[in-house]
Write a sequence for this structure.
């Protein structure tokens, strides 16, 4: 029964991760490189061995054999001259040749170790040398000096034959050594060609491996990652309906599935967010409309109440002037209550009217020198300053883009509060500081008055919130609420410094150029003990 392994192998490969593909690829590449390296090392070793044998054995052996022959020629020349003349000087080249013969023979024997054929050739040469020396050279050298040796004449033919036989043996040896050297050179050239081809093949294989690895990485990793990245960028640019297509190794496909799962969750979250935003926009529109209606109502109510309130105030004051002292004491007290209530009501309505105008009715923003505004403000409240004996110091103030009128109201309320809420029996000391912090200016109005407890640091900015009774400190409770609305209208923030305990310190920040205000900004009503 035949089993088709193709369909089962494809799913197996499809489960391979990037790490597994890389490991298999690296293992295959390393195996090929190791095999090529071993082969290259063998060829290099072979080349080195042949080259060494040629340089250190073959060539020196041939040279030594030639030198050995030269030493024998020296011996033959010396022996022949001595034998013919009996002159001792001819023995000198013979003796020198004999010494060189022994040296060269020993050297040649060492070079030919392991080469039996060449050692047999050397043995044949040595045998011929020994025959010539025994039969001719030694007897002549042993004859007395001063007269020709009889052996030289008698054995001339025999000596020539022995020496020629030796030279034939040496020629044979040299021819064979020369042939060995030629064969070694040919072997070296062949091995070097093999080495060159092998290294060229190794270079081709390495380049092919690099191309294969590069293409495999491009197709198996880079291309899938680029596709995933392109899909992710399409989603990031707002195409949330663009699905992620799984591709590449198993781990990259899992990554694609996870990104696709996140995309689906994001689509669901965005759908819910769109619905929530639509509801929030509707609620925001309702809130803006409600705030606008409330501000309009506050303005209209305070404005329309002015006329009847003026009548009530006028007639109660007329009653007070005309009938004061003519009625009993209780009637005078009731009239005083009515006059005081009408005056406080008129003050409250005026403050409420000013509060409603902030952010709704304002002059065009322009460069405003706060030093000039401060001087104008101090002139406006000069009576309070003189009565209280307040000492007011200030830093050099900047020029900002703002509403000059509202800046005057801001300084007037902050400095007026610092004078109003002073300690009994103590001269008010007020300092206005300004410090630049990047694009912002940070201001602070510091006094030595009764201060504001940390638990009331937020409450003081709520409209109509008072920390003291009207019998102790008069006011409507709108002053700091108006300050907060003015500062926020100009894009800043205002707060009470909780770390300052020697009085009160109100800090606020303003930008050199406030954010563009195209419509009245609805702000949370805030107030103070004013």
């Amino acid at each position: 029964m035949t089993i088709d392994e193709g369909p089962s192998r494809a799913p197996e490969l499809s489960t391979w991760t990037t790490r597994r593909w890389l490991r298999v690829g690296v293992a295959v590449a390393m195996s090929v490189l190791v095999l090529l390296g071993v082969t290259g090392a063998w060829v290099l070793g072979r080349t080195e061995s042949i080259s060494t044998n040629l340089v250190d054995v073959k060539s020196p052996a041939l040279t030594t054999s030639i030198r050995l022959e030269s030493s024998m020629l020296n011996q033959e020349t010396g022996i022949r001259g001595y034998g013919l003349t009996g002159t001792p000087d001819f023995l000198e080249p013979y003796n020198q040749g004999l010494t060189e013969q022994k040296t060269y023979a020993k050297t040649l024997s060492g070079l030919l170790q392991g080469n039996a054929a060449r050692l047999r050739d050397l043995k044949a040469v040595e045998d011929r040398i020994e025959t010539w020396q025994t039969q001719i050279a030694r007897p002549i050298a042993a004859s007395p000096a001063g007269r020709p040796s009889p052996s030289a004449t008698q054995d001339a033919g025999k000596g020539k034959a022995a020496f020629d036989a030796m030279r034939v043996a040496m020629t044979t040896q040299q021819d064979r050594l020369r042939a060995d050297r030629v064969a070694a050179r040919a072997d070296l050239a062949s091995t070097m060609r093999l080495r060159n081809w092998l290294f060229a093949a190794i270079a081709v294989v390495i380049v092919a491996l690099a191309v294969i690895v590069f293409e495999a990485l491009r197709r198996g990793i880079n291309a899938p990652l680029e596709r995933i990245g392109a899909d992710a960028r399409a989603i990031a640019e707002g195409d949330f309906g663009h699905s992620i297509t799984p591709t590449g190794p198993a781990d990259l496909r899992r990554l694609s599935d996870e990104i696709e799962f996140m995309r689906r969750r994001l689509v669901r979250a965005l759908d819910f967010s769109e619905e929530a935003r639509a509801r929030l926009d509707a609620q925001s529109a309702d809130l803006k409309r409600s705030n606008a209606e409330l501000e309009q109502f506050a303005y209209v109510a305070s404005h329309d109440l002015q006329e009847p309130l003026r009548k009530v105030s006028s007639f109660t004051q007329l009653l007070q002037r005309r009938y004061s002292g003519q009625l009993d004491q209780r009637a005078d007290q009731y009239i005083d209550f009515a006059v005081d209530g009408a005056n406080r009501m008129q003050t409250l309505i005026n403050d409420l009217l000013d509060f409603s105008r902030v952010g709704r009715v304002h002059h065009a923003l322009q460069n405003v020198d706060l030093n000039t505004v401060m001087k104008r403000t101090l002139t406006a409240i000069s009576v309070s300053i003189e009565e209280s004996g307040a000492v007011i110091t200030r830093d050099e103030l900047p020029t900002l883009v703002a509403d000059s009128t509202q800046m005057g109201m801001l300084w007037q309320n902050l400095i007026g509060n610092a004078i109003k809420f002073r300690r009994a029996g103590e001269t008010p000391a007020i300092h206005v500081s300004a410090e630049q912090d990047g694009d912002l200016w940070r201001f602070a109005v510091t006094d030595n008055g009764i201060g504001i407890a940390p638990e009331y640091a937020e409450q003081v900015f709520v409209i109509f919130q008072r920390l003291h009774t009207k019998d102790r400190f008069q006011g409507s409770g709108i002053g700091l609420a108006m300050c907060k609305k003015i500062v926020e209208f100009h894009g800043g923030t205002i707060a009470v410094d909780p770390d300052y305990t020697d009085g009160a310190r109100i800090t606020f920040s303003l930008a050199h150029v406030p954010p563009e205000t195209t419509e009245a900004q609805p702000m949370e009503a805030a107030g103070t003990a004013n």
